[in-house]
Amino acid sequence: MTTFRAVLQFRKDGPAVIGQWEDDSTARKTYRRWIGLYGTNPAATVRLIEEINGVQHPLRTWTVAGEYVTEPGEQESGG
């Protein structure tokens, strides 16, 4: 089974707000919305994660410094 998560944190290893869906489009919309809402906060980290059979694969990570993309066929966008 594949699930997609959007994860928002304001400090490393701190509490997180997590949304989880089977549909990647909802997870991606949430990821982008959280970047719009919190992306200028210097402590915020927003991640998009794909989980397949219990194994997590980070797809995108946003910090105030920019976006780190690990999805195949995608490129980073600097901050």
Structure description:
Helices cover 19% and strands 47% of the residues. Strand 1 and strand 2 form a beta hairpin. The protein is built from one helix and six strands. The longest helix is centred in the middle third of the chain and has 15 residues. It is α+β, with helices and mostly antiparallel strands and 79 residues long.
Break the fold down into its secondary structure elements and pairings.
Blueprint: E1 2-9, E2 16-21, H1 24-38, E3 45-52, E4 55-63, E5 66-69, E6 77-78
Antiparallel strand pairs: 1-2, 1-3, 3-4, 4-5, 5-6
Q: Overall 3D geometry? A: globular
- Counting DSSP E segments of at least 2 residues, the number of strands comes to 6
Rounded radius of gyration (Å): 12 Å
Unreliable residue stretches: none
Q: Report the structural category.
A: alpha+beta
Q: In this structure, how is the largest beta sheet organized? A: 6 strands, antiparallel
Between the first and last Cα atoms, what is the distance in angstroms?
A: 34 Å
Fraction of helical residues: 10-25%
The tally of helices reads: 1
Question: In which order are the strands of the major sheet placed?
Answer: 2-1-3-4-5-6
List keywords for this structure.
single chain; 79 residues; alpha+beta; 6-stranded antiparallel sheet; 6 strands
